[in-house]
Specification:
Blueprint: H1 2-22, H2 27-52, E1 56-62, E2 68-75, E3 91-93, E4 95-96, E5 99-100, E6 105-106, E7 111-117, E8 137-139, E9 148-154, E10 160-165, E11 171-175
Helix pairs in contact: 1-2
Length: about 180
């Protein structure tokens, strides 16, 4: 658990530094930084799930202003669940020492998000149900994750990033505008 807290502290400091510089950046640069940060978190959470024998989830949601946000959740242990709880109640914010390890991250306004499960491009995008806050992507205790492809496209057409993760939690980012990442 100490290792997780050290890694999270370092990521928190990096996120704080990045947040300070965001205000002078373009939407493209901000989105690029956020996607790369999410890539690192995906790889870290795949390792942490196996290391700690826990199941984690990545929850994507959109608010009433069409702003997309992602949050990390941890599945409640089976022994702690109560009969009257829904599946959404089983997913708790990822916490350490009384605070969120990864605070929610909102993508810039005007960015559309499309999530697909990897391996079958013919399937339609995942229907993200804002009324049922259950993660869409799972990071299992045995080291596997739900393979996925996340498209982030600005409505202005100046940014299009793709984050893809495989079954083992290896993630890569592609800038679909210039393919130089």
């Amino acid at each position: 658990m100490v290792e997780l807290l050290v890694v999270v502290t370092i990521l928190g400091l990096l996120a704080t530094i990045a947040t300070v510089t965001i205000f002078s950046d373009s939407t493209h640069q901000r989105l690029q930084r956020q996607v790369k940060e999410l890539q690192g978190q995906v790889e870290l959470m795949a390792e942490e799930a196996q290391l700690h024998g826990a199941t984690f989830g990545l929850l994507l949601s959109r608010d009433e202003n069409d702003i997309w946000t992602y949050r990390w959740r941890q599945e409640m242990e089976l022994a702690l669940r109560e009969d009257n709880q829904t599946e959404a109640d089983w997913w708790l914010p990822l916490r350490g020492e009384g605070r969120a390890l990864f605070p929610p991250v909102s993508f810039p306004a005007g960015v559309e998000v499309e999530l697909r499960f990897a391996g079958n491009d013919s399937l339609p995008p995942v229907d993200i149900n804002e009324d049922e806050p259950v993660p869409q992507v799972f990071f299992y205790r045995h080291g596997e994750i739900t393979p996925f492809q996340l498209q982030l496209i600005s409505e202005a057409g100046d940014s299009h990033f793709q984050l893809e993760a495989d079954l083992l939690g290896r993630a890569q980012v592609v800038d679909k505008m210039d393919d130089s990442l």
